[in-house]
Amino acid sequence: MGQRSIIEPFRIKSVEPIRMTTREERERFLEHAGYNPFLLRADDVLIDLLTDSGTAAMSAEQWASIMRGDESYAGARSFYRLRGVVEEIFGFRYVLPTHQGRAAERILFSTMCKPGDVVPNNTHFDTTRANIEFLGARAVDLPIPQGRRPSEIHPFKGNMDVDALERLIVEVGAEHVPLVMLTVTNNSGGGQPVSMANIRDVRAICGRHRIPLYIDACRFAENCWFIREREDGYGSKTPREIARELFSLADGCTMSAKKDGLVNIGGFLASNDETLVRQESRLLILTEGFPTYGGLAGRDLEAMATGFEEVLQEDYLAYRIASTAYLGRRLTEIGVPIVQPPGGHAIYVDAAAMLSHLPARLFPGQALVAQLYLEGGIRAVEIGTVMFGSTDTETGEERAAEMELVRLAIPRRVYTQSHIDYVCEVVGDVFAQRDRIAGLRMVWQAPPLRHFTARFESVCAPSSPNDLSND
Length: 471
What we know:
The chain has a five-stranded mixed β-sheet with strand order 2-8-7-6-5, with helices on both faces. Strands 9-14-11 form a three-stranded antiparallel β-sheet. By secondary structure, it is α/β, with parallel strands linked by helices. 39% of the residues lie in helices and 13% in strands. It has helices spanning 23-32, 60-67, 77-90, 101-112, 126-134, 162-172, 196-209, 220-230, 239-248, 274-287, 298-310, 314-333, 351-354, 364-376, 385-388, 417-432; strands at residues 47-48, 94-98, 118-121, 138-141, 180-183, 213-216, 252-256, 267-271, 346-350, 378-379, 381-383, 390-391, 398-399, 405-409, 439-444, 455-459.
């Protein structure tokens, strides 16, 4: 008997209608939004793959937890429940709730970084990099070489290049490296996992140089599943056991619970450093709220605590990873170039390979995003030169990112296989007409994080090979 289909390990208890739109309507909506999916109205989107952050469907138990929320300003029992769950799973003694992950990042970096510092990461995501650079520090990406090659197969393409880390620390001096971060899974690098062996190697380097190691933990459960499936010695361990080992190697973590917390809002900052936490608490009070609620309602704390317990359930993780792999397999079968192997939370289309007639200055990733919406009402996000490039203020030339990707991020417990099949059909139709897709010109931007609000206009594709330079 062959392998049976992976089914959703839940029943659907309530539904939300989505509106079908015509191509003519989408043309109008897209032009009005300046070809930027962030500026589209959600009601005008059919399948929303813009992000997996805060877009999950909460469970019946999470909704029940909301009713148990204690809304006391200080010392609410909901905080102590969350703290207990975080201590059990993540192992850290001190927990500061925040309204989402970027608030935790801002507090951490504001406390630890100063101008001229350097913060290494396997790959920083957008808000992480922006929070570091806002303080005058430098965010440095150190992925392994395989992580920069989309089509190459490697079980842990999210790993950090430990030799490059050692060289960087020696070059700038350990006193200028306030912390090292590892993002699990590596979102900007294609949602790829980090191995336990790599985390141990990074921990050893940090230990020798007396530098704290922090984990960007927003997709920790998915990373733990990949460790169990792909790394020797972990096949018999539970995701919870792997998570506890992973975080035992770190000095702290930032968490956006809007991902692997299965909630629509929330996060936390955790560590074992009491002195540091006192400093962070003062900043938390100034901008977020009292340290036992951190800008959240008690019901949000309860939903987070329940979500952290549910996300480590093996039936859920098997379904989650298999459904993403299904999308990746279907797209690969029709020839669409993607980051291989498929990651945990998203499929990343290699827009540079798919739209090879468009140079980076015509933003092939953004052009592909626009075409997906135009063709089928699918909203995705560019992770390439729009997000990670920059415009030279003196020459006006565009500095290209190393990869031009389009992320199809799958919300947790939201879409069924028929929705994903529809996505495959639309991407296939776009792939079939890829040579006719025009590029885009950026007509307005506002640093930092320009991708959220930038506006574009359509331009004709280059007609001469001499126009295809990425310079």
